Amino acid sequence: MSEISLSAIVAALGGQLHGDGGLQICGLASLESAGPNHISFVSNPRYQQQLVGSKAGCVVVGPSLSGAAVQRGFCIVTDQPYLYFARLTQLWRATVRSARPPKGLAGAVIHPSAVVDAEASVHPTARVGALCVVERGAQIGAGTELKARVTVGEDCVIGARCLLHSGVVIGADGFGFAPDGERWEKIEQLGAVRIGDDVEIGANTCVDRGALQDTVIEDGVKLDNLIQVGHNVRIGRNTAIAGCAGIAGSTTIGAQCTIGGGAVVLGHLQIADGVHISAATVVSKSIKKPGHYTGFFPLDDNASWERNAATLKQLHTLRERIKKLESEPKP
């Protein structure tokens, strides 16, 4: 089973359907990327323009957007569209994703002691170390080496001449949950990870699969040890990231960038090509121009640091006092 009808979705999850229940849905997608046989969702009225312009076959919306959604086309109206979407991802994984057949054998040089499924696809000259796991539908390119205990998740693709060091996890679930009262409902992560050619990934680094679209690491990227790459992140060609950095979900990092160790890049940001970020910097807004960026408090002895930190908390008050003084008539 590779698709599901709108009527079957509503029968399983509820909601009020406006449109033809016989429409067959072949995938879940964002408003921007959805096509006529995709289903998407929107929960925030701020995205009404994207809703109106979306080509999705059906959109899950709340009551506040029902008018615009009905005027646009097919929709399912529910009180909690984000929670509905979370349950829809679970339904999709249970009824559609689990039914897909694995890909055929591509041919490889395999150690005699290895246990390999008859339908596995590992390219010739790929090298797979001890205790590695390559899940169904994953592809490993020619000349790529997986060191011990590497995991490559379902449907993830790794290009040619890559090197993944011990403990790397490609394609674990992204961190996605919808609130349901006092508990959290899991959003199944239905995308994958696509890694280009000549990529090296350090030990115990994790690259999460996308929620709907894929997480993408382009050609020539170098990742150090213990890096977290969140779901739907895109890292541009030949970018290098040092150890213990964290990239939150849905952020795009340009080509030829460098990110220092322990730096944190928040989610849904855009980082231009040629940006260089110092170690331990927290990037909280998009960077649109190339250059060197730094954002951390200088090292000092603890007593001085505490005094300076206390002064920082008073900067807003001091600024208002200065503005008031400057606005007073001069004698």
In short:
By secondary structure, the chain is α/β, with parallel strands linked by helices.
Give the topology.
Elements: E1 4-5, H1 6-13, E2 16-18, E3 24-25, E4 27-28, E5 38-41, H2 48-53, E6 58-61, H3 66-72, E7 74-77, H4 81-95, E8 127-128, E9 133-134, E10 139-140, E11 145-146, E12 151-152, E13 157-158, E14 163-164, E15 169-172, E16 177-180, E17 183-186, E18 193-195, E19 200-201, E20 206-208, E21 215-217, E22 222-223, E23 228-229, E24 234-235, E25 240-241, E26 246-247, E27 252-253, E28 258-259, E29 264-265, E30 270-271, E31 275-277, E32 282-283, E33 291-293, H5 302-313, H6 315-327
Parallel strand pairs: 4-5, 5-6, 6-7, 8-11, 9-12, 10-13, 11-14, 12-15, 13-18, 14-19, 15-20, 18-21, 19-22, 20-23, 21-24, 22-25, 23-26, 24-27, 25-28, 26-29, 27-30, 28-31, 29-32, 31-33
Antiparallel strand pairs: 1-3, 2-7, 16-17
Shape: flat
Q: What Rg, in angstroms, do the CA atoms define?
A: 24 Å
Relative strand content? 25-35%
Number of domains: 4
**Would you identify the CATH H-level superfamily of the largest domain?**
Hexapeptide repeat proteins
Provide an overview of this structure.
- The chain has helices at 6-13, 48-53, 66-72, 81-95, 302-313, 315-327; strands spanning 4-5, 16-18, 24-25, 27-28, 38-41, 58-61, 74-77, 127-128, 133-134, 139-140, 145-146, 151-152, 157-158, 163-164, 169-172, 177-180, 183-186, 193-195, 200-201, 206-208, 215-217, 222-223, 228-229, 234-235, 240-241, 246-247, 252-253, 258-259, 264-265, 270-271, 275-277, 282-283, 291-293.
- With 331 residues, it is α/β, with parallel strands linked by helices.
- It has 4 domains: 4-99, Udp-n-acetylmuramoylalanyl-d-glutamate--2,6- Diaminopimelate Ligase, Chain: A, domain 1 (3-Layer(aba) Sandwich), CATH 3.40.1390.10; 115-232, Hexapeptide repeat proteins (UDP N-Acetylglucosamine Acyltransferase, domain 1); 250-296, no CATH class; 300-331, no CATH class.
- The protein has a 9-stranded parallel beta sheet, with no helix packed on it. An 8-stranded parallel beta sheet has the order 9-12-15-20-23-26-29-32, with no helix packed on it.
- The model is unreliable at 102-106 (pLDDT under 50).
